[in-house]
Amino acid sequence: MAQNYTEQAQVQDFIEEMVLEYGFSAEYLQQVLGQAKKQQSILDAISRPAERVKPWKEYRPIFLTQQRLDKGLAFWREHEQALAQAEREYGVPAEFIVAIIGVETMYGGNTGRYRVLDALSTLSFDYPPRAPFFRSQLREFLLLVREELFEPTELTGSYAGAMGLPQFMPGSFRAYAVDFNQDGKINIWTDAEDAIGSVANYFIKHGWQPEQDVAVQAQLNSQAAEQGLTGSLTPKHSFKELAAMGWSTEQTVNDDAMVTAFKLAAEQGDEYWLGLTNFQTITKYNRSEMYAMAVTQLAHELAQQYRD
Questions:
Q1: Distance of alpha carbon 53 from alpha carbon 24, whole angstroms
Q2: pLDDT tens, residue by residue, 152-174
Q3: CB 123 within 8 A of CB 42
Q4: Is this prediction's pTM over 0.85?
Q5: Which of 102, 161, 172, 251 is the most exposed place for a label (fewest CB within 10 A)?
């Protein structure tokens, strides 16, 4: 194994691509990638077998804690003006922005300790199973540090290269991060206002519908109605079709609405839910029904306590 990434043929190919397609200086890329360090702990983390998928009754308590609520309420009060502005401009409720940042990093308390350059280089050149994806993110990272005039060795994030309070990958940063406080730079690492505006922008660009519900609980008239369960994050049925199978809700849902129908193993038994368009938006942030439900329920609890 080469000690320096620039000694690897695949890295030289990557450099050549960046020079030809994006106009980088080869000398600059040699210098930057020459400082990248392989991190075995990153490879260990990403290669670790996935833990048993927790049922909802075990997953929910991880995120719906009083500590996370207390910190979220403090974050909301501290950044009340920015959150209200984001809600006005983007139509994304403050509580959902707060909940995303809370679930992702505990309001900035855990944004990751790895240099993004090390994380993306390690996964691009020493982790073949997902090398194409991480190489694309390394490309996005180099473009964003050029555009934003960042020092590439100073930016930190998760072992996968996700950055800042909202844990944006470099591609998401370039596409959705905004200078919300208009101070001339985008800073999602320590500037909560930019993080707030960036989350709101991400949501609206991924189809968030202002003033619409996220998920509604449903009832089934028989076990046979379980045939309506979606089985994936992509909606397969309209609400009208599910109603014909035996699904019903106390809240009004448009007959033509395409919904994600899923079941959660809760403390008191199985719960059935319908995820609407805004629910599907949250799953674009993290492709998990339970993640989206954790964000949704944390948001609702935050809003209730904030307004009490």
A1: 43
A2: 999 999 999 999 999 999 999 99
A3: yes
A4: yes
A5: 251
